[in-house]
Amino acid sequence: MLTIVTLGSCNSYNRILKSDDYEAKFNEANRLYDDEKYERCVALYEQVYQRSPRSPQGEVAFYRLGKACFAVEDWYLASYYLAAFPSKFPYSTKVEETTFLAAVCAVKNSPEVSLDQHETEVALNELQNFVTRFPNSELLDTCNMIMDKLRFKLETKDMMTTRLYSKTENYRAAVVSAEQFLDNYPRSTYREEAWVILMRNSYHLASNSVDSKIEERIAKTNERFNIFLVEFPNSDYLREFEGYVEKLKKINVPVSNK
Predict the structure, then answer these.
(1) Per-residue confidence at 195, pLDDT binned at 50, 70, 90?
(2) Residue 98 CB: number of other CB atoms within 10 A?
(3) How far apart are CA 54 and CA 67, in angstroms?
(4) Angle, CA of 191, 162 and 232, to the nearest 5°
(5) What does DSSP assign to residue 5?
(6) Where are the alpha helices (DSSP H) in 19-91?
(7) Considering only CA atoms, which of 36, 55, 35, 62 is closest in space to residue 44?
(8) How far is it, in rounded angstroms, from Cα 145 to Cα 135?
(9) Which is nearest to 31 in space by CA: 47, 19, 46, 13?
(10) What is the pLDDT of residues 83-128, one digit of tens each?
(11) pTM recorded for the entire structure
């Protein structure tokens, strides 16, 4: 009996899908949407929208296309509909919601921290655009919280890159990367770690330097140590870095470079 009912339902759906009765298509799409059968309502809503994109039904169809794709976690397709909605229906009461949900789709597309973070940067831009456009929205706190998490992901990704340079003994790249990190994230929870990487690689870069650059690199390492000492006077790494400074004092700088 269940099989007969299911087949009847499928036949009814297919008949409406292939028909020229767009009122029936719209009503069936709404029924399926309300029953949370999102994947089945999409094709019907697409037909309704294509038939009458400027009509009230077309607006509902386009909005629900985005919401249906969002519900089944098809983030790219949902983003397409939701991001396009405000430009197609600029006076709709759904503009704020769809703009926010389009940004959420971008957030959902943000990959794990070890991968390329282009999508994360896109998500940040989308959220910032929402905040700028709707400065009085009730969703501002939510946006700020999400943006903080995305920024921390970018921060962590940059720290992973800095760690990798240090681990592979690419001293110069590690120094440059650590300095850039400290400039870009002055309040980072990784700040002391970045300084540790900077000091260690600055020391190794100096101690393995060619004659023409050794004096400059020793001076730079000493300067960095003095800054570190002020910023982290109780650091567990002070003894290690004091040892670096003492070792560098014992290096004979070529007379021609003095």
Answers:
(1) very high
(2) 24
(3) 19
(4) 25
(5) H
(6) 22-34, 38-51, 56-71, 75-88
(7) 62
(8) 15
(9) 13
(10) 999 999 999 999 999 999 999 999 999 999 999 999 999 999 999 9
(11) 0.85
